[in-house]
Recover the amino acids of this structure.
């Protein structure tokens, strides 16, 4: 017991948070950094933007319709004279909110199912059957049908916009949790065999604390990566739904809706397609890059601990 | 053995741990991996029982089953006089503080996302109602005990070297003042130069706190150093159990003999003249153990009876148990004379302890 | 392996039955109506009559059971009859009829198969063919400019919605340049070189859009899988044997990396049939996807139900195929 | 093995660094050693001391980036391996220099049959056709003691046990009758009884084939049983070199000595307490300017912190890199 | 000369799903079928009836219709042949009636045969249709694209419940028209070739037709006007500027024509508040404020119909103040004041009626706020209309909430759904409606008191806005027994004016049909009273 208290290699460093390391590694991934910066920019634009650019996105100025970019309307106006910038901002709010909320929902469901299935052997079979079942469901038709089924019940309960928002978020969330569940389950299964879980069991830690203390923090990285992909996926799905005429009502701008509505005008007013198209693509791209960087940053093998 | 009324702290009887194998069209249970197959041994208070054997022979499973980290298939486990073989979750949780474990891989056995203080404090959280400062005091106390600088309390495991990590694991095991610790290959993942540090620490702690160890290892030299008595496992069964010197001095089971002879001795003078018993073939699968004696497929002294009848695990000479038909014969024919002589070193046992 | 396959197939039966029930309930309970698309000038009594003639008045369970029997007994018999000129099916064995066209759903599907297979299938194959080399090179030269560009292109590939790229291509190449037709001709038959060229021209744009999307995804998988394997010990062994870099990467690493990728590719096949709905819509490739959309819009329950169920069967089937492939490709895996 | 014979392999001042995100890792620093024909050179040292990196540097097996062989000469067959082109190096690897790695479980490609992997070097280096290669493969399998070779060649690695896989690895390394066999901890992953089988096999093969072998391990017992001569590595350097008996009998470097004392023995008296080497191995973030062992050395004195000791002869065929003369219990004056 | 002009390519962005007009009422199906199947008489582009398979149009004057208006006698042209060469006889005509009225067949056109009690065939070329009641307008059966003549021989086995199973017949009916089906791919494409037995040996000029379906209006328009892949595109409901841009490419022309289709806002005379439970939107519960005519009138005045047309339809629409805008003789001019938007007067009107603006700008009286729920089906143009109208209404102090419902639900008539246009669980709703042919009698009968939908009738009934007036009912009854065209016209106008002046319906736009054909396609005459392809036999290629 005469270990040298401080050795050459053990220069006392201030305790370092895991996440600082992650951030350090993340910073070296240029794409990820740019992605994160852009995503933050988008977030700021859609949250703070409408406070600065105060034109009402639903205000119709019929004399000013179909205008190109100008000082009064930097992004131009649409066929009813509504300001495109204002619509982009409020549309972005919805699209990003849908992305984030749907991702959150699918993560919660996926993580919950994944952790339960991975942790409790008895639940594994049935939960994985359930997951397989969901995976085997052809999503698009069901999406369409579910939207038709529940749209109105929810609309009356939460108002016209809230209702459809909940529905779309719900539908995208409910139909995209399976991948997360599978990944999390796999990780939990592996984790369960890790000795520190066994160590906690030998201490007598009860299951629920085992999950919150040991399992969840350690499946966080796949979850984080899933999260970024989930946002991207939800934004794309929402715009595809708009394309098939099932997304938000057309008086309710979202990027997908704006893009869909403006494809007809592609030749006359190409900028109208460009704005939402760019917004969707760049957001998804930035989130994807963020995910990529996060994956690297969270992987200890790469981070080189 | 003679001078002190030694109490059995752990009594394991007929312990079986089978892992089911599923298969077939309907995923029915096809068979089982007999990871631990009818194992019995006792551990006396304050001693170290070494458990050796080849990879996959069921050492870890046995160690974990003894602590009831698995739901065992069959058998009885009494710790400190209390049966826990079939104990429910509540009782088990209440008994956890008495029995703890130190794991093989110091990296894997520490949650990478918890600080050292939290890791060591976890058992305290679970089983005591200490206030925060009290808890911190206790954590520091434990860190001192295992020779960790108190400054390290807020660091994460990846910032430590292997030996230091293993100290953290030991501190955690000590937190609740256990009586019995299962050390599952605690040094296997460490560098030679670090192994000694950890082994010495374990020994110091044993003498300080009066701990009892089940020391699992495949390093026979190290077991010889640390253990009081040694059990040798082969394919889920304990084939020989004896006081250390008896076992190293006069192994009875052909497997033990082969095992011992296979260990290279770090001394070229001895090593070049040593006889090596080279076993043929590989260890059979525990899912499909051979008929009769498990060792019959590789045994250099195999007899017909070995392929038919599984030898009983018997006390061949006092304190020296073995499961081998060779000793049946000796017993019946020569009434165990040579054995008795060979076993004599076991008397030293009493002196050392 | 065989028992494994059989077991999986056995498990698939209840799963599929359950799925069919869910699909049936969801599709039937949806408040859409087969007469909704008729002009308002058709009075409501006539609508009621039409609904009755479609069997909409039967109780739910009866309709489900009837559908099950039609799908699993009558349809196969009819299809056998058609294929071999037998007459196993009797007259009272009604086939599953589409409400919109009043024709057997199976015929509709068969009719739409060629264009879906042609366009979407080709795009999938091309996507895979593009993706593999990109993935391999990206992984081998990780963080090189090629990798960066490849990463960017593939990320962009699935970041841009296909309806956007599709319309963009049409405007550029059909309207402005006039190179390719904007509307896919499903009746076109390839008989000679000239007509083959026509076929190629009309396929280029939809195939390009889809292939980009597919390639984007698969190349990411390929890259990840290659990266996983490039660090393995056996690669070092191969190098230590003095094998050339080409052999090491293209034989040893690739073979291992392909195992998960092949299964990903197999799992993607069902999407070939259903996932290209938007692209089919944009280029008017009236394939399976468009059939589904029209059926949904028209409240054509039997068609939606049957198609959806077939998709489910395909998904389950290709899941199995993927698993079996995995077993075949990876000698370590033994299913039993 | 007379010291006079020309060495098959002569390594001088080898230096290898890894460039990582956190800076350079100087894994191998000025390593020199030689290998005589037919001899078995044991390499010991604790984990991370640069044993593997040294050997892989010799024949360009390190991934580059991040690895970079900075300096040195590796003379083999009259040429400097660090200077020859990649193509020529490839022609050497597997043909004249065989390599066996530590982990037999992962070192074989899981998706090719053992036969395929065994034939590969034969076809590549010996230009054999398939049937000739097959015949040779069967011979090799017999050689390493795998029965029923003809049939087992068609099996996949996972169908072999660990010991047999390691035999296959050895067979692959021996396929083209190499002059030098480098074995990087070939038995560490194996059980003792299996290790005994492999060691036995190795002794036998050496008798029959007579090649020179470099055998890396950190198990002193294995070294004691198999090696002719030993080099001890520490912190990316060779700190001592001696014939095996000499080394065990008369260790000169404090690290070697400590190492020999920390390991428990199977025979003889049982030490009541194990000796320990306190402290941790050095961090290799800069080229060494001082003795790498000084922080853990009980004899370290001021010179050790100023200068990195070179290896000096301390006996017949025995040299050590230490300023402390153990015999005299005093600093060495070199 | 027949077949000399090669192929003509037609694109319909809604794809036909069947060639049997009796099994589907969809316009796309009727029009596709009209290439093959023909009725006894058709309407021309002006809404006049012209004999088609019949020799002449029977009237009371020429003795074809009996004085008591209960039977009509058609004479077939002699020598007519089906495409397979067999002769067309009166039996085929009679069979067509039997086919559509067979039990369990779900015939979509059975309304055309209402009141027909018998069809007699005294000889091969004579058909006598007997009605159970006096029919002042006896031209329902066998007239127009909805009720063509089908071949008895082909459909004999397909009566009633068997109808849907005759896939071959439904997809490739034998016809008398200029083309016959070679290949029919439901919801995709139809290939047709010239009918060798067509009665005019010179026609059709085209040897074959490729009839493509599917996609969207933009793509269809583009393929004719911009890329010239197709010769004719149907129903290009596109924003005017988009269309104009396409035309500017110079490859084709727009043709448009007006029929009876009117986009209108219906005002709910009953209370749709959800608190009423079962009784919401039924006659028991009058609407709290829309029963006040001043409010209805103000709502109408606030709308700028010209602008709506400009935004939504361009040349394909014109503002209208009548729910019955055509044919010419039925068109009233009494209500044209609505064409001018007058926000100020609307406000004044509300002020007079005691609706005063509250603090939030919403008018109220006695605690009743002028707050509306405005619903329609999901459709880009309708949503633009909603947005505009909402803004105008809010300007006059009427709060408006918008809602749009998927068309298949809105028009689906599912009694279980709360969102059908019949249930009308909203204060106002917007959609378009028209009537077949030229006779408005049954159309105007929609607003009879007894037509009000209610839970008791499973919400069936055409009086969607729950308007009920004895005077109106009397006019309908009178029309039912009036035969003379002028008198009928007066009655219809009176009914129209009554609805308009009570402002229970706010007509917005008279929607025309817009189609496009390429510059190389000649002979196109757009017809809004019958199939657009009615004269396809006369189409030809301009070199
Ligand atoms: N959870 C499990 N499910 C199925 N089989 C298991 C499980 N755990 C262990 N086994 C099997 O039980 C046998 C004994 O395993 P165990 O880990 O106890 O061996 P060990 O002696 O500790 O080996 P090592 O020295 O490699 O740690 C092995 O064959 C192993 O494959
Ligand atoms: N790819 C790499 N990147 C960075 N550093 C490396 C890399 N490979 C090895 N090293 C470093 O080089 C040093 C020597 O490693 P090496 O593998 O040669 O040790 P070793 O003596 O073989 O140890 P072991 O006994 O564990 O095999 C170590 O400090 C290690 O961290
Ligand atoms: Mg173990
Ligand atoms: Mg190594
Ligand atoms: Ni000791």
């Amino acid at each position: 017991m005469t270990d040298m208290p401080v050795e050459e290699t053990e220069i006392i460093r201030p305790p370092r948070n895991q996440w600082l390391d992650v951030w350090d590694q993340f910073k070296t991934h240029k794409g990820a950094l740019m992605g994160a910066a852009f995503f933050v920019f988008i977030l700021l634009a859609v949250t703070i933007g409408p406070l600065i650019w105060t034109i009402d996105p639903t205000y119709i100025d019929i004399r000013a319709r179909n205008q190109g970019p100008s000082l009064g309307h930097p992004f131009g106006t649409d066929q009813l004279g509504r300001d495109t910038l204002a619509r982009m901002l409020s549309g972005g709010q919805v699209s990003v909110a849908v992305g984030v909320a749907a991702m959150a929902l699918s993560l919660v469901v996926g993580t919950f199912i994944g952790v339960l299935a991975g942790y409790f052997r008895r639940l594994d079979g049935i939960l994985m059957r359930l997951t397989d079942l969901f995976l085997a469901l052809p999503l698009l038709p069901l999406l369409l049908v579910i939207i038709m089924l529940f749209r109105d019940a929810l609309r009356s309960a939460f108002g016209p916009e809230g209702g459809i928002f909940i529905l779309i978020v719900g539908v995208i969330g409910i139909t995209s949790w399976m991948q997360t569940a599978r990944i999390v389950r796999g990780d939990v299964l592996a984790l369960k065999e890790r000795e520190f879980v066994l160590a906690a069991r030998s201490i007598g830690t009860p299951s629920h604390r085992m999950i919150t203390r040991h399992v969840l923090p350690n499946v966080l990285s796949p979850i984080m990566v899933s999260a970024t992909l989930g946002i991207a996926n939800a934004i794309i799905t929402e715009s595809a739904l708009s394309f098939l005429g099932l997304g938000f009502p057309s008086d309710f701008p979202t990027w997908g809706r704006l893009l869909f509505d403006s494809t007809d005008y592609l030749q006359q007013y190409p900028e109208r397609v460009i704005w939402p198209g760019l917004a969707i693509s760049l957001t998804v791209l930035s989130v994807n890059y963020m995910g990529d960087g996060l994956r690297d940053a969270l992987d200890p093998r790469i981070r080189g601990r | 053995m003679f001078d002190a009324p030694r109490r059995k702290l752990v009594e394991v009887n007929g312990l079986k741990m089978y892992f089911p194998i599923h298969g077939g069209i309907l995923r029915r249970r096809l068979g089982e991996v007999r990871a631990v197959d009818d194992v019995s041994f006792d551990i006396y208070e304050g001693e170290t029982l070494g458990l050796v054997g080849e990879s996959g022979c069921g050492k870890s499973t046995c160690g974990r089953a003894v602590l009831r980290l698995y739901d065992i298939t069959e058998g009885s486990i009494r710790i400190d006089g209390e049966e826990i073989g079939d104990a429910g979750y509540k009782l088990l949780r209440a008994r956890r503080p008495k029995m703890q474990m130190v794991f093989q891989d110091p990296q894997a056995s520490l949650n990478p996302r918890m600080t050292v203080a939290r890791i060591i404090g976890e058992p305290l959280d679970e089983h005591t109602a200490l206030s925060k400062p009290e808890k911190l005091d206790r954590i520091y106390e434990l860190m001192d005990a295992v020779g960790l600088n108190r400054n390290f309390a807020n660091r994460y495991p990846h910032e430590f070297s292997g030996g230091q990590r293993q100290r953290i694991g030991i501190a955690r095991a000590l937190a609740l003042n256990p009586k019995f610790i299962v050390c599952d290959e605690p040094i296997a993942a460490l560098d030679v130069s670090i192994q000694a540090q950890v082994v010495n620490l374990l020994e110091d702690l044993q003498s300080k706190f009066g701990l009892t160890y089940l020391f699992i290892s495949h390093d026979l030299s190290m077991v010889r150093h640390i253990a009081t008595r040694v059990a040798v496992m082969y394919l889920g069964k304990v084939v020989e159990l004896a006081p250390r010197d008896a076992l190293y001095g006069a192994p009875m089971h052909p497997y033990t003999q082969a095992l011992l002879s296979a260990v290279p001795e770090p001394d070229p003078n001895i090593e070049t003249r040593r006889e090596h018993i080279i076993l043929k073939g590989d260890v059979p699968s525990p899912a499909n153990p051979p008929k009769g004696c498990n060792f019959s497929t590789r045994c250099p002294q195999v007899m017909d009876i070995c392929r038919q009848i599984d030898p009983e695990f018997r006390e061949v000479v006092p304190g020296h148990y073995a499961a081998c038909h060779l000793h049946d014969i000796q017993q019946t024919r020569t009434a165990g004379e040579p054995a008795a002589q060979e076993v004599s070193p076991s008397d030293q046992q009493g002196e050392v302890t | 392996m065989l028992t494994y396959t059989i077991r999986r197939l056995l498990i698939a039966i209840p799963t599929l039955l359950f799925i069919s029930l869910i699909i049936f309930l969801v599709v039937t309970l949806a408040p859409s109506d087969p007469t909704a698309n008729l002009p308002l000038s058709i009075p409501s009594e006539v609508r009621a009559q039409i609904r009755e003639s479609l069997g909409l008045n039967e109780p739910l369970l009866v309709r489900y059971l009837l559908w099950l029997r039609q799908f699993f007994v009558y349809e196969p018999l009819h299809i056998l009859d058609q294929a071999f000129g037998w007459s196993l099916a009797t007259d009272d064995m009604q086939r599953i009829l589409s409400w919109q066209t009043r024709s057997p759903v199976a015929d509709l599907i068969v009719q739409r198969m060629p264009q879906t297979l042609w366009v979407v299938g080709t795009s999938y194959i091309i996507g895979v063919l593009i993706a593999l080399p990109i993935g391999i090179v990206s992984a081998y030269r990780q963080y090189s400019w090629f990798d960066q560009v490849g990463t960017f292109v593939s990320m962009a590939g699935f970041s841009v919605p296909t309806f956007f790229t599709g319309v963009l291509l049409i405007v550029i190449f059909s309207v402005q340049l006039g190179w390719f037709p904007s509307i896919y001709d499903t009746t076109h038959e390839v008989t000679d070189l000239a007509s083959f060229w026509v076929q190629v021209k009309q396929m280029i744009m939809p195939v390009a859009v889809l292939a980009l999307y597919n390639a984007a995804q698969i190349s990411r998988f390929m890259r990840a899988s290659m990266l996983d394997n490039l660090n393995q010990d056996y690669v070092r062994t191969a190098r230590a044997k003095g094998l050339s870099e080409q052999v090491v990467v293209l034989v040893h690493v690739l073979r291992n990396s392909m195992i998960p990728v092949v299964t990903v590719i197999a799992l993607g096949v069902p999407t070939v049939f259903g996932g290209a709905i938007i692209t089919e819509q944009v280029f008017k490739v009236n394939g399976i996807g468009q059939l589904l959309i029209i059926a949904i819009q028209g409240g054509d329950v039997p068609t939606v139900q049957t198609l959806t169920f077939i998709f489910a069967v395909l998904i389950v089937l290709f899941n199995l195929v993927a698993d079996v492939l995995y077993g075949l490709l990876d000698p370590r895996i033994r299913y039993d | 093995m007379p010291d006079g014979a020309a060495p098959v392999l002569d390594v001088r001042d080898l230096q290898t660094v890894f460039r990582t995100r956190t800076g350079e890792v100087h894994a191998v620093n000025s390593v020199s050693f030689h290998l005589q024909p037919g001899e078995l050179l044991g390499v010991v040292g604790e984990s991370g001391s640069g044993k593997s990196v040294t050997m892989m540097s010799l024949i360009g097996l390190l991934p580059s980036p991040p690895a970079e062989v900075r300096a040195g000469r590796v003379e083999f067959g009259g040429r400097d391996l660090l200077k020859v082109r990649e193509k020529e190096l490839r022609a050497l690897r597997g043909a004249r220099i065989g390599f066996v790695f530590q982990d037999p479980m992962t070192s074989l490609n899981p998706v090719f049959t053992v036969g395929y992997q065994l034939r590969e070097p034969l076809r590549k280096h010996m230009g054999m056709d398939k049937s000739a290669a097959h015949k040779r493969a069967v011979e090799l399998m017999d050689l390493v003691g795998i029965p029923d070779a003809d049939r087992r060649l068609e099996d996949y690695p996972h169908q072999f046990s660990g010991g047999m896989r390691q035999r296959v690895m050895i067979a692959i390394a021996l396929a083209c009758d190499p002059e030098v066999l480098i074995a990087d901890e070939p038995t560490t992953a194996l059980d003792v009884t299996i290790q005994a089988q492999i060691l036995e096999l190795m002794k036998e093969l050496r008798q029959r084939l007579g090649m020179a072998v470099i055998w890396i391990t950190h198990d002193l017992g294995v070294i004691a049983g198999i090696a002719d001569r030993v080099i001890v590595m520490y912190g990316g350097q060779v700190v001592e070199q001696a014939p095996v008996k000499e080394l065990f009998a008369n260790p000169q470097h404090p690290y070697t000595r400590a190492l020999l004392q920390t390991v428990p023995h199977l025979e003889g008296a049982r030490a009541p307490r194990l000796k320990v080497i306190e402290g941790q191995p050095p961090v290799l973030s800069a080229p060494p300017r001082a003795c790498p062992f000084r922080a853990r050395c009980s004899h370290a004195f001021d010179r050790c912190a100023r200068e990195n000791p070179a290896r000096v002869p301390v006996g017949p065929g025995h040299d050590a890199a230490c300023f402390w003369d153990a015999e005299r219990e005093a600093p060495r004056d070199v | 000369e027949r077949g000399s002009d090669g192929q003509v390519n037609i694109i319909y962005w809604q794809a036909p799903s069947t060639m049997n007009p009796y099994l589907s009422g969809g316009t796309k199906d009727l029009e596709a079928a009209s290439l093959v199947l023909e009725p006894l008489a058709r309407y021309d582009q002006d809404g006049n009836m012209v004999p088609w398979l019949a020799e002449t149009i029977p009237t009371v004057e020429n003795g074809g219709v009996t004085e008591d208006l209960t039977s009509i006698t058609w004479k077939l042209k002699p020598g007519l042949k089906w495409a397979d060469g067999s002769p067309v006889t009166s039996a085929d005509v009679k069979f067509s009636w039997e086919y559509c009225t067979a039990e369990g067949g779900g015939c979509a056109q059975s309304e055309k045969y209402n009141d027909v009690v018998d069809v007699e065939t005294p000889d091969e070329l004579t058909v006598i249709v007997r009605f159970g009641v006096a029919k002042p307008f006896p031209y329902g059966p066998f007239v127009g694209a909805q009720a063509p003549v089908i071949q008895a021989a082909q459909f004999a086995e397909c009566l009633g419940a068997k109808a849907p199973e005759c896939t071959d017949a439904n997809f490739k009916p034998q016809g008398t028209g200029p083309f016959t089906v070679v290949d029919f791919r439901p919801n995709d494409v139809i290939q047709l070739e010239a009918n060798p037995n067509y009665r005019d040996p010179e026609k059709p000029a085209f040897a074959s037709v490729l009839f493509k379906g599917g996609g969207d209006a933009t793509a269809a328009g583009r393929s004719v006007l911009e890329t010239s892949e197709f010769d004719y595109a149907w129903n290009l409901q596109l924003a005017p500027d988009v269309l104009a841009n396409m035309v500017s490419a110079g490859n084709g022309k727009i043709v448009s024509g007006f029929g009876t289709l009117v986009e209108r806002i219906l005002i709910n005379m009953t209370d749709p508040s959800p608190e009423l439970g079962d009784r919401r939107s039924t006659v028991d519960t009058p609407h709290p404020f829309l029963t006040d005519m001043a409010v209805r009138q103000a709502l109408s005045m606030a709308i700028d119909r010209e602008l709506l047309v400009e935004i939504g339809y361009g040349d394909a629409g014109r503002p209208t103040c009548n729910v019955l805008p055509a044919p010419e003789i039925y068109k009233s001019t009494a209500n044209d004041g609505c064409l001018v938007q007058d926000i100020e007067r609307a406000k004044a009107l509300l002020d007079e009626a005691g609706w005063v603006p509250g603090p939030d700008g919403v008018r109220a009286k006695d605690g009743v706020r002028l707050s509306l729920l405005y619903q329609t089906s999901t459709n880009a143009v309708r949503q633009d209309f909603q947005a505009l109208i909402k803004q105008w209404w809010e300007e006059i102090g009427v709060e408006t909430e918008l809602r749009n419902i998927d068309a298949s639900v809105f028009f689906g008539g599912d009694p279980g759904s709360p969102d059908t246009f019949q249930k009308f669980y909203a204060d106002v709703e917007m959609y378009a409606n028209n009537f077949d042919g030229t006779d408005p009698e049954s159309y105007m009968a929609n607003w009879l008191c007894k037509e009000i939908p209610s839970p008791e009738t499973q919400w069936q009934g055409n009086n969607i806005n729950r308007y009920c007036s004895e005077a109106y009912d009397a006019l309908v009854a009178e029309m039912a027994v009036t035969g003379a065209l002028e008198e009928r016209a007066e009655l219809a106008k009176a009914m129209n004016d009554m609805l308009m002046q009570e402002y229970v319906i706010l007509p917005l736009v008279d929607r025309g049909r817009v189609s496009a054909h390429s510059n190389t396609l000649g002979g196109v005459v757009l017809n809004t009273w019958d199939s657009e392809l009615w004269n396809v036999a006369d189409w030809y290629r301009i070199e």
